[in-house]
Amino acid sequence: MQRQLIECVPNFSEGRDMGIIKQITNEIEAVDGVKLLDVDPGNATNRTVVTFVGEPEPVIEAAFRAVKKAKELIDMTKHSGEHPRFGATDVCPLVPVSNITMEETVKFAHKLAERIGNELDYPVYCYENAASTAERKNLAYVRSGEYEGLKAKLEKSEWKPDFGPAKFVEKTGATAVSARNFLVAYNFNLNTTSTRRANAIAFDVREAGRNKIDINTGKEVLDENGNKIRIPGTLKKTKAIGWFIKEYGVAQISMNLTDISVTPVHKAWDAVVESATSRGIRVTGSELVGLIPLQAMLDAGKHFLKKQNRSLGIDQAELIKIAVKSLGLDELKPFNPKEKIIEFMLEDDSAKPLINMTLKSFADETASESPAPGGGSISAYMGAMGISLGTMVANLSSHKKGWDSRWEEFSNWAEKGQFYKDTLVNLVDEDTNAFNKIMDAFSLPKNTENDKTIRKQAIQDATKYATEVPFKVMSLCYQSMEVIKAMAEIGNPNSVTDAGVGALAARSAVMGAFLNVKINASGLDDKEFANKILKEGNEIQEKAISLEKTILDIVNSKI
Fold it and tell me: What is the pLDDT of residues 188-218, one digit of tens each?
């Protein structure tokens, strides 16, 4: 299962004393599984915006520790600054980044808010998607009156906090916790120096649009109530303005995408290009300010490939390359995915030593006297190679001369193949990790009866996991044979033998992984689980052997 990631962007009411800021961020960095991405202090606002990311539970822990430290160090009675605020930790939004829904993120926001209110004993409000009422969705409403008006506000029943006591804690104030969508700061480079023309394009596309102007008088048009009539822009969930960048000598459109599930970067690009072109201006490239989720880049790559009627079932790195080139993200300066994509910032290459090896190094490591990698990792790799061949046939078929009308059919098969390939590649290291967990469990102390009990349970847990991983490998390898069979039947006939070799590898991977399932299951005390997984494994193996024969019959009939 792919790991869930959320981003946390707490804003602390201190932007001048770097010693205080460092003590707060130290709390965040002390939590395993969390990565501090950015610390942005502001002197005039006397406010620091901190950005960190990780899996939900570590992020919640890090956020709580930071909020607790801020309560200890920041005195709101002495605070002044240009930015609206009502607490030491003013706001603490959680943002779903990957493999997690907004609904799930809201639950974590409530969990964090409740812990802050209960354990730190001061008022906490929830806003945006985590809000308890429609009015509280708006942060400006929640924070109305700011710190100076908080005491009087808390005396009113309608301002009872969502969590924590309805009392004024003079030194700390209150905190607003939310779950909100990911915001992407995205700039478009234009072949003009005119800020006015850049603004015109911005007004065309931003959600707020522009005020309606009477073409005869040049004055703003008002409705019957005397309010200005606005013409909305073409893009939802966007804010945009035009400006001139002296450093580059060009005008830009500066855009904030406040919900990339509604308006992703590639949709914004197309809209800006269309508007600019209609005004005789060209978009020469674009610039991402800050970080972007991986999926947004993959979606962009697929969008531009689809426009070309080309297969979308290509490797992640190639999709990102297509996105970067299509959006011109490398026009002003090099675009490094490892520094701009959130998930890549979190990658720990040391956790995946095998898949980062060269082919020769992997073979040498397997042939060494070390017991790992062993048959389980090799089975996963065989399976990955098998479906890679099937995926190759799908991509070749998608681009075969004379088959242009069928590109999407084969693209869909190639996308399925890429999923199986990527998952199996990750399981190469996971199988070795599972083996290491067993070794670690056996190394636990056994001096006392309690030690022995803990050690025994650890061994059983590790052995169960070491049984589940190869079972997952064999399941995925069997499922991947659906793609291989389709390519043998309908794929490019010049590559039919590649599909055949893929079937051989996939079936071998199923059988190899099942050997690991059997040997590990034999060491389990939970015989009900062991018997169940052995029964299911045997069924998968039989189906894989049968399907391999079917595929090879198809292949041989075409040779």
Answer: 999 999 999 999 999 999 998 988 887 888 7
User: Are residues 226 and 132 both part of a single domain?
Assistant: no
pLDDT of 550 > 60? The answer is yes
Is the Cβ–Cβ distance between 69 and 23 less than 8 Å? yes
355 burial level (CB within 10 Å; 0-12, 13-18, 19+): middle
Copy the structure tokens of residue 36: 């501090």
Instruction: Say if residue 399 is in the same domain as residue 520.
Output: yes
Listed in sequence order, the DSSP H helices in 136-264 are 139-142, 146-154, 195-205
Q: Which of 79, 83, 259, 526 is catalytic?
A: 83
Contact 529, 465 (CB under 8 A): no
Strands 230-231 and 89-98 turn out to be unpaired
Q: Which of 483, 499, 489 is nearest to 412 (CA)?
A: 483
Q: Are 254 and 159 in contact (CB under 8 A)?
A: no
Task: Give the chain's radius of gyration (CA, Å).
Answer: 29
Average pLDDT in the 76-98 region?
A: 92
Q: Is the pTM value of this prediction over 0.85?
A: no
Residue 1, pLDDT score: 54
Contact 165, 117 (CB under 8 A): yes
CATH of residue 277's domain is: 3.30.70.670
Give the residue among 284, 288, 324, 285 at the shortest CA–CA distance from 304: 324
CATH code assigned at 430:
1.20.120.680
CA distance 152 to 216: 51
How far apart are the C-alpha atoms of 210 and 229, rounded to whole Å? 9
223 is annotated as an active-site residue: no
Cis check for the bond before 373: say yes or no (omega within 30 of 0).
yes
We report the CATH number of the domain holding residue 80 as: 3.30.990.10
Instruction: Please give the single-letter amino acid code of residue 35.
Output: K
Dihedral of the alpha carbons of 228, 230, 236, 242, in degrees to the nearest 10: -90
Per-residue pLDDT for 441 more than 60? yes
Mean pLDDT for the chain overall? 94
For 65-131, the DSSP string reads HHHHHHHHH--GGG---SS---BSEEEEEEEEEES--HHHHHHHHHHHHHHHHHHH-S-EEEEETT-
| Rounded distance between C-alpha atoms, residue 76 and residue 14, angstroms | 9
**Catalytic member of 162, 204, 429, 431:** 431
pLDDT of residue 40: 84
Which 8-state DSSP code applies to residue 264?
A: -
Q: How many CB atoms lie within 10 A of CB 498?
A: 21
The reply to whether 79 belongs to the active site is no
For tokens 């990527």, what's the residue? 422
Q: Which domain holds residue 332?
A: 184-346
- Taking the C-alpha atoms of residue 37 and residue 181, their distance in angstroms, rounded to an integer, is 18
Cα separations (Å) of 168 from 36, 90, 124? 31, 15, 11
- How many Å apart are CA 242 and CA 214, to the nearest integer? 23
Give me the residue label for tokens 């292949």.
Answer: 555
For residue range 334-392, what is the model confidence (pLDDT) as tens digits? Answer: 999 998 898 888 777 667 788 889 999 999 999 999 888 899 999 999 999 999 999 99
Rounded to 5°, angle at Cα 492 from 488 and 496: 40
